[in-house]
Each structure stands twice: as C-alpha cells, then as structure tokens.
Design brief:
By secondary structure, the chain is mainly α. It is built from 5 helices and no strands. The chain has helices spanning 2-25, 32-57, 63-88, 94-97, 100-127. The chain is elongated and about 60 Å long.
Length: 128
Amino acid sequence: MNKNLAITCIFGLIAIILGAFTTHGLQDVLTTREMSSLETGIRYQIYHVIVLLFVNTHSPFSNKLKNYVSYAFFFGIVLFSGSIYAIHILNYPVKSIWFVTPMGGLLFMIGWILMIHFFLFKVINKKK
C-alpha cells in the first residue's frame, strides 16, 4: 500500500503545482472558460487524492480492493484531469483527444462503485 500512497502523494503534489501555475502563470493567457476547465481538472484530481488517502489507509478494505480502487482513480486522474491539462496547458487539439476525458470520468465512477459495493455488502452481511 505504500506504493499506492506514494503515487497518491505525487498526484497531490502535481495538483498543487498545477493549481499555483494556473492561478499565477496562466490567468493572463487563458480565457475565463479555459481557466474554469483547468480548475475542474485540478479540483477532481484533489478530490480523488483525498479519497485515495482514505482508501489506502482504511484497514477494513482488503489489499485487493485498495488496489482496484487506486488503479481506477490513478488512471481516472491521468485520463480525466490529464486530458484537460493537455488541452489547455500543452495546447493539444481537443478534437484528437475528446474521448479521453469521459473515459477518465468512467474510471472515477468505477472506483466509487467498487467502494459502494463494499459498504453495501458490509451493511447487508451485518444484518444477517
């Protein structure tokens, strides 16, 4: 789990650096809409970093579940937030990667569904 936590911390650091860079370095370069889009990518990355810290330190989760959720969120961050960064910071053409952002969103949903499944079965099994 230390590997997952280390990767999580790297994603957290990247989000903070990109947040500062966006706010202080790109505010005069990007439109309000582009800034809002970048902020969404950064915000979703931070949200999932916080959840990953919980997931990888929550002892009732098995290592297998921790890995499944972590990988879903890791790849979700790369695809969802990364595609937004590529479009607005690297000027990557939207038309060439339009499908990547929703794939990242789908991976976020899969990670959340895995946790919902765990907690629901915990409640169901407790009632038996």
